[in-house]
Design a protein that fits this description.
Shape: globular
Structural class: alpha/beta
Number of strands: 12
Mean pLDDT: 93
Distance between the termini: 52 Å
Order of helices and strands: HEEEEHEHEHHEHHEHEHHHEHEHHEHH
Radius of gyration: 20 Å
Low-confidence stretches: 1-8
CATH architecture: Alpha-Beta Barrel
Largest sheet: 8 strands, parallel
Bound molecules: flavin mononucleotide
CATH topology: TIM Barrel
Length: about 375
């Protein structure tokens, strides 16, 4: 059930975080069926793969680190006590699996410093590869030094700067950003302040090739293409809004670059970046397709939250282990020993995905 938690005398930003957790517990916030276009990717079966499961090696380079599997949990939450419980539990699960854990936006820490412990997950998972999180417009307003301090205050290994103009434009009035200028300059300054330990992520509407190339040129070493196909943040905000804002949210609910297209377009645009595929990675077979299209790592958010809601930390752990098990099966069935070999697997792409990979320029269509 998607009942929004009644949070009367609570800090406004905490109530919003609880709304998000509550709405994302259900499926009303998903992009329309097939929005990620992964059903347009078929990996070609190899009946004699000459691979033993014993020799599969899923270890993966992730910036300056090595992961045990090419997966990560992308940023979700923090702030209210319940969000802290989710963060501490899922950080422990990620440490166990050997994959990075992303915190949700740390903006709320500035408004209410007393909630900092909900983000300080090292007390629960000292060795987890930890990714801090802040929105690009908040980063612009804070300035690079305060942003770097925010990342240091939780002992994050990297900071993810999130982009989400679509969500901001449909968010109820006082909470929303409407001035999106200065983003590239802000990111360049934060990259400098953090010595390059910066990722940039979308939140389910996708990075285009042009944006990915410009970010890579600024020295951003990690990009999360986060396309449409999974959680729609426009839908989340539309469900929280009323009147015109709710109608505008419904209109743009499926706006975005499908995740399969975003990954395939970003790979050649930013060839040296660590590329994360998120937005609708629901299982290990979809993860295998994302890796085949060029991602280094598949990122998951809401599916892990739902597994946690259903079965606690054990449920989240089992979900990630099953995801890895499915990924291993897919690798054997295309004859790949490593995630990098998966990229060379023959594949069949459907017409809608192929159309995204060769977008028409306005000049061509005008002729
Ligand atoms: C409950 C919830 C809260 C989220 N909060 C944040 C956030 O604070 N910062 C951020 O960068 N992304 C946030 N995201 C977006 C995810 O990191 C991810 O980009 C997006 O949900 C698509 O992945 P999915 O389809 O696996 O959910 C959130 C996602 C969920 C489900």
């Amino acid at each position: 059930m998607n009942t929004v938690i009644n949070a009367a005398p609570m800090h406004e930003s905490h109530a919003r975080k609880l709304d998000h957790l509550s709405l994302c517990a259900g499926d009303d916030v998903e992009h329309g069926a097939h929005a990620g276009l992964f059903e347009e990717v078929s990996l070609v079966h190899d009946a004699l793969p000459e691979v033993s499961t014993a020799e599969l090696d899923l270890t993966t380079r992730f910036l300056d680190h090595t992961l045990r599997a090419p997966l990560m949990l992308t940023g979700m939450t923090g702030g209210p006590r319940e969000a802290g419980e989710v963060n501490h539990a899922l950080a422990r699960v990620c440490a166990q699996v050997g994959v990075p854990f992303g915190l949700g936006s740390q903006r709320v820490m500035l408004r209410d410093p007393s909630c900092a412990d909900t983000f300080r997950v090292r007390s629960s998972a000292p060795d987890v590869l930890l990714i801090g999180n802040i929105g690009v417009m908040q980063a612009r307003d804070l300035g690079p030094e305060r942003v770097a301090e925010l990342a240091r205050s939780v002992e994050a290994d990297y900071l993810a700067i999130h982009l989400n103009p679509a969500m901001e434009l449909v968010q109820p009035g006082s909470e929303a950003d409407s001035d999106f200028t200065g983003g590239y300059d802000t990111i360049a300054r934060v990259v400098d302040a953090l010595g390059g330990r910066v990722l940039v992520k979308e939140c389910g509407t996708g990075l285009s090739a042009r944006v990915a190339a410009r970010l890579a040129a600024l020295g951003v070493r990690g990009l999360d293409a986060s396309g449409s196909g999974g959680t729609s943040w426009v839908k989340v905000e539309a469900l929280r809004a009323q009147g015109r804002q709710a109608r505008l949210g419904a209109l743009f609910a499926d706006w975005g670059i499908p995740t399969a297209a975003a990954v395939a377009l970003c790979r050649p645009a930013a060839p040296d970046a660590t590329l994360i595929a998120s937005g609708g990675i629901t299982d290990g077979l979809v993860a295998a397709k994302a890796l085949a299209l060029g991602a280094d790592v598949a990122g998951l958010a809401r599916p892990v939250l739902q597994a946690y809601n259903a079965g606690g930390a054990d449920g989240a752990l089992e979900f990630l282990e099953e995801t890895i098990a499915a990924l291993r099966i897919a690798m054997v069935l295309v004859g790949a020993r490593t995630p990098v070999e998966l990229r060379r697997a023959p594949r069949v792409l459907g017409p809608r995905l192929r159309a995204w990979l060769h977008p028409e320029s306005p000049a061509e269509s005008a002729q």
